Amino acid sequence: MTDDPASILTPHLPISAMDEHYDINAAKTSLEKMSKECMPNHLQLCKFDMEEGLHRFVQPTYTEYPRCWKLTYLDNNGGIEKVVLRVQGVITGSTMPPIKWPFKIEPCQQAYFCQSAALTGFGSESFADAIRCIEEIHNIFACHFPEGSLELWNASSSAGYLTIDMANRYFTPHSQASPDQIISFSFAIDPDGILAACTTDGTLVHTKDNSVEYYERYQEGEKQRYEAIDPIKFHIGDIAEAQVSFVVIRLKEQKYKMLIVMRALTLLDSSPLQNATIAQNRVKNQSIISATLKRKVGYQDEEVKETESKIWRMRIE
Predict the structure, then answer these.
(1) pLDDT tens by residue, 138-167
(2) H helices within the chain, ranges in order?
(3) Mean pLDDT, range 242-270, rounded to an integer
(4) What range defines the domain where residue 297 resides?
(5) Are residues 69 and 95 both part of a single domain?
């Protein structure tokens, strides 16, 4: 992870792709409510710099496998754990598996090929707090590098709303991978073996650190249940919760860059998109019905001529 990940950025689709039937205000209200309900507090990105947050206990730690600096903390047993925080938002862009034929990954793209997502809060308070906390995490990293050497982090934007980009590469250079961390691709991610084929020469491997888990949350009374799901179930406009970690990689010329690494994505609520689809179909069906019910008033020329002919014959007879 020492090269500039030029392709790690998430391609944003315009929010207008949700069409005019998507109720942004309703989605924002639902998102704010869910963000306040999500627990535990100390794992919420938006509360990182608050009293219940982890900001007092974290520090950057350098690792060889892979070579980067990770935001970490000491667990109760004195061990070093990477910090994984949660943020809720509406999906505005994504590049998710499965990777299917005839998709082809060019050799020059393999090292940077990634699964990614972009979330927005539509201006919600909790999402604004999450962005502020990412800036605080960037400041924590900046103190461990020469002044000015860590590139600035800025939130992205889509249709005037701030967004958070996150990604995770499918591959790690074999030289930077611990043997006990190397794993195979699951069928849900790589059904046609396209990703696995990129590892055959031994240059790249897939590791636990490259893995992203996908879930859906079910509300059962006051209890919540999480089930692993196929990533194909996620769509732009869904409300989701991402679990992310933070790393810094070395670029060229003694420059460094902070990345937000996607560890898991959980589908919280797909109703905003479903309601938009229902409204869109209702309008479409109504237009079809209106077109079908149109009728012409008066008579066609052929009808008039035929009637006149019958009247003329009746007079002759």
Answers:
(1) 999 999 999 999 999 999 998 889 999 999
(2) 24-37, 125-142, 194-197, 271-293, 301-316
(3) 96
(4) 281-316
(5) yes
